[in-house]
Each structure stands twice: as structure tokens, then as C-alpha cells.
Amino acid sequence: MISRLLTFWMPLTWLLFVTICAITAGWLPLPAPDIMDYDHQNASPGTMVIMPKETTAEAVPGARNQVYWLGTDSMGRDMLSRIIIGARVSLTVGGTAPLIGLVIGGLLGLVAGYFRGFTESIIIGCMDVILAFPGLVLLLAMGFYFGTNLWTLILSLGFLSIPAFCRVSRAVTLQLANREFVLAAKMIGCTNCSIMVREILPNIAIPLCVYGLIIMALMIVVEGVLSFLGLSVPPPTPSWGGMIAAGREVLGEAPHVCLIPAAVLFLTVLSLNILGDTLRGWARPL
Fold first, then answer.
1. pLDDT digits over 268-285, tens only?
2. What is the pTM of this model?
3. Pairwise CA distance, residues 7 & 102, whole Å
């Protein structure tokens, strides 16, 4: 019971919490992530300030309390707001890019593992070419021609993830191609397409989805690394990697600017890895 709590429910709870916060960020009582408070730059977590209420004409009597629960960055922007909004970028990249690889790579691996022969040689050869091509060069080229934006990043990372899913799908298909239920389907006259869709595809879906959680964690880390190279979403759009990259400049005087988004990134990636390993262990007997 305790083992299941640590390896399944706790990481799942954290991932749901981060996802819900990212989805409902627009309804939360948080300041805009790009509002700058130059009077409270690099404020410590829990800092409370009194800000005047203003109208379009002039300031009016009255004040309200503003609490920076996680402090502010070097430009006086609220860290909590930026982390929650930045979760949208990290989760979008981490969820959409592996989905592209899962669909395309999974289908290619299914075809290669089932038909074998010349078809397998062509598909695996193409996958080897993609694996041999420097991924950083592709990201630089895509950023140069199409600009550094979220969807360019997703498409590039999704393309680079295709070979990994293709290899997993092919390996599982090779194990299933000679199983009794597949041979029985061939004997009763089912077409190859019907066998792949009805007999093999449901059995490779679970391993691919479990492997997708591992790749999702990897993609979130890759997005953070690319932020240091200027290949992720451009400012002022916040992302966890961009916040970590900006926080390194004030690491000595305000370590929370770098360490807080790094901790959130670490917990999210750790949760995905633990959850993926747990589900893989549960699905192994199948």
C-alpha cells in the first residue's frame, strides 16, 4: 500500500495539480506574468507589499496588499504567476511532441515489424538516418527559417522522437507477429490491415503509452535546455527553462529565482519517470 502510494498516487497527484493549475491559470487571482514591479526586484518568497489602487485618471485613496508567495524575478515579475503560466509551455511541449512521435513512429514500427523484408529495411533505414542527423542542427535550421515559437519547437522535437517510438513498436510487433491469435486470424482469412488494427495495435498501445511518459519527461528537460540556447519560446512568454536561464544571472544574490522553477521542473520530470516505471511494471505481465 505504501509502495503504491509513493510510486503511483503521489506522482499522479503532483502531475494533476500542475496540469489543473496550468489550465485554470486565467481564473486564478494572480497578477499578469509580465507586470514588472521595479520597487521589488528579486523579492524573497512571501514578501508582502502595499500597492495603491489606480484608475485611468489618477491614483485614488485606498490600498491593497500584494503577496509574492514565491518572490519576484530580477525584473520584479511575480514568480508564482510565471511558473503557472510557464507550465502551459512545458506541458504542451512535453505532451504534444511525444504524441507526434507515438502516432507516426508507432504506425511505422507496426508496419515494419509485421511485413518484415524490404519494407522493414526501408523504414529502419529511414529511422537510422533521423537518428544520425544532429538534432541541434535541425532545431537551429527550423528556428532560423520558421522562427523560434512554440509550434516550431513541438514539430521539431516530435520529428526527432519518431525513431524511438518506431523501435519500440517494431520490437513489440515482432514478439506478437507469431502469436497464436495472429496466426488464427490469418487462417480464417483476415486481411493484413485488419490483423494489424484489430489484433496487434491494441497490444502495442500500452507499451507505447508507457514509453511515452518517459519521453514526455525527456521533452520537458529538452525544452529547458533549449531555453539556454534561445531555441525555445521567445520572451516575454514564460517557460520553466527560460526562468531557470534568466535566474542564473542572479543566482548569488537571489537563488530562489533559479531554484524554484528548477525544483518544479525536477518534481514534474521525476513524477513522470516514476509513474512511467510503475505503469511499465504493471503492464509487463501482459
1. 999 999 988 888 877 664
2. 0.86
3. 24
